[in-house]
Design brief:
By secondary structure, this protein is mostly helical. It is 74% helix and 0% strand.
Length: 321
């Protein structure tokens, strides 16, 4: 094998692309694990956020960064963390009420919401291309709605709310993205989100425990969710995204719903619950999601590392306008 050919095969850019695809595959498992874990959605999300936060916040690097942050900025990240918690709560609620494929498809709608929310929050001009792509998603959504049983409808609309929350906290994170270290931001947001959910669960009527102790099976699955689907891909992507073009990175992260749905078929047998209209609608939605980086290739920026550990739609919130 020629040395130059071997060097091409293991180039930093190619290695980074493989790393990001591996991360996206791991993110695809979040929906699968959410279906397999027997805990209610609020307990599942509380444990996931708490475990990751407890791993990050004691790090010397994070402690030093926290001490240097002004209280107002910490409070802002903590508020965003509440939105992150609500996003994950609605996402896993959608999985419980519908299934993993439906929840993953709903998250693909987040760019459509982002086209309207970010200009409103940042007082910038609305991007007509993104609005058009968002409007064109409506037939895909209609097909998805018509392709699922009536019993899954509440889960679908909960998933749509989850996508709306992704767009909201993604836009807010973008405004603050340059003011703190990525690990510190993630630790604050997940820690505050976990605290919010624990307090919220305590106030719910008839709740026996705000943080129920999972059985051994769920402990193992939660460990996979926290470490394998959150911390590991976060660490890999912090390095890999800096070696990739914005276009390649955006296309890679947009594959997450595809991986989730493909994994759900053999692992959960969800194709038996869904009709052909659902899958046709998924194709329409995903084609439009992939069209965005193709049509705006000259201006796109890399997905923000700060969002990678706090969202199922990891490419949102860092696209230039």
């Amino acid at each position: 094998m020629r040395p130059d050919y071997a060097e091409h095969l293991v180039s930093p850019q190619r290695s980074a692309l493989l790393q990001v695809h591996f991360c996206v595959l791991l993110w695809g498992f979040t929906a699968i694990l959410g279906k397999l874990i027997s805990l209610p959605a609020i307990a599942l999300v509380s444990w996931r956020m708490l475990v990751v936060a407890l791993c990050l916040l004691p790090l010397p690097r994070v402690i030093r960064a926290l001490r240097a942050l002004p209280p107002r900025l910490i409070a802002a990240y903590a508020g965003i963390g509440v939105l992150v918690a609500l996003h994950w709560l609605t996402f896993y609620g959608a999985i419980k009420l519908a299934n993993a494929s439906v929840a993953a498809t709903c998250i693909a709608l987040a760019p459509a919401f982002l086209a309207f929310i970010e200009p409103l929050l940042n007082r910038s001009r609305i991007n007509r291309l993104e609005v058009l792509l968002g409007v064109l998603m409506v037939p895909g959504v209609a097909l998805v709605v018509g392709g699922i049983p009536d019993s899954m409808q509440p889960g679908l609309w909960l998933g749509v709310l989850s996508a709306l929350l992704v767009a909201l906290f993604g836009s807010l994170n973008k405004r603050l993205v340059e003011h703190a270290d990525a690990l510190t931001v993630t630790g604050i947001e997940l820690g505050s989100g976990a605290l919010f959910l624990i307090v919220f669960a305590t106030l719910l009527p008839g709740s026996p425990s705000p943080l129920p102790i999972p059985d051994m099976r769920d402990i193992g699955l939660l460990a996979l969710l926290a470490f394998g689907c959150t911390l590991l891909p976060f660490a890999l992507c912090l390095h890999a995204l800096r070696q990739m073009s914005a276009f390649s990175a955006q296309l890679a992260v947009n594959l997450e719903p595809v991986y989730a749905i493909l994994l759900a078929i053999p692992l959960l047998g969800e194709q038996q619950e869904l009709g052909w209209r659902f899958y046709l609608g998924v194709v329409v939605i995903l084609l439009l999601v992939f069209a965005h980086p193709l049509l705006s290739r000259g201006s796109a920026q890399r997905p923000a590392p700060e969002l990678l550990a706090t969202a199922e739609a990891h490419g949102l919130g860092d696209e230039s306008r």
